[in-house]
Amino acid sequence: MMERTGFPQLENDLPDGLLAVRAAEGDDDAFAVLVRRHSRGLLGLACYMLGNSQDAEEAVQDAFVSAWRCLPEYRHTAQFRTWIYRITVNRCLTMLHRRTPPLPLDTVAEPAAGDEASSPARAAEDDAEAAALMGALGEMDAALRVCWILRELQDLSYKEIAQVTQTREQTVRGRLFRARRLLKEAMAPWR
Fold first, then answer.
1. CA 48 to chain CA mean position, Å
2. DSSP characters for the chain?
3. Quick count: other Cβ atoms within 10 Å of Cβ 37?
């Protein structure tokens, strides 16, 4: 990032709304800060929605490209965070609808070597449990899955989830209730 004001970290301290305004005016550095701030959370969301990191990276990249193009029309009625999450959710849903057969949801990271918790038996059990969770998420209706991921993994508030999903908070609460109940049933053997 270029140092324009003599304060190299200044843009990192600015709120998203101001950075979005500056980015809409053509400030590439301001948009780069927004990308750095939100890419990790968006990538996690996309990974859980799509089930693999390659599709997730593509969805997040497409979401940022779309956001960059639409910044001049961004009305600031919603927080930038919820706006970019909505764009990403829409991109993921589009990608899911275009799939013909469902892809395997085995995105479990390899355990670190030498750790007691990474014994072959424990690793196999962890892999099976993670696969069961990913399978349950994969079978869940997309609307329920999105709400669960945004709440449980991305820690968004009910209000933010309602903005991202363009529904009412009461609808979000209902979807979360159903998603949690389905996951509880699916994961019962692992308790």
1. 7
2. ---SSS-TTHHHHS-HHHHHHHHHTT-HHHHHHHHHHHHHHHHHHHHHHHSSHHHHHHHHHHHHHHHHHHGGG--SSS-HHHHHHHHHHHHHHHHHHH-SSPPP---PPPPPTT-GGG-HHHHHHHHHHHHHHHHHHHHS-HHHHHHHIIIIIT---HHHHHHHHTS-HHHHHHHHHHHHHHHHHHTGGG-
3. 16
Using alpha carbons, select from 132, 165, 95 the residue that is nearest to residue 174.
165
Task: Please give the residue that has the higher pLDDT: either 120 or 144.
Answer: 144
Alpha-carbon distances, residue 87 vs 5, 83, 129 (angstroms): 32, 6, 31
Q: Which two tokens stand for residue 123?
A: 């690793």
Task: Write out the two tokens for 4.
Answer: 């324009």
pLDDT tier at 101 (50, 70, 90 boundaries)?
low
Quick one: how far is CA 49 from the chain centroid? 8
Tokens of 59: 């969805």
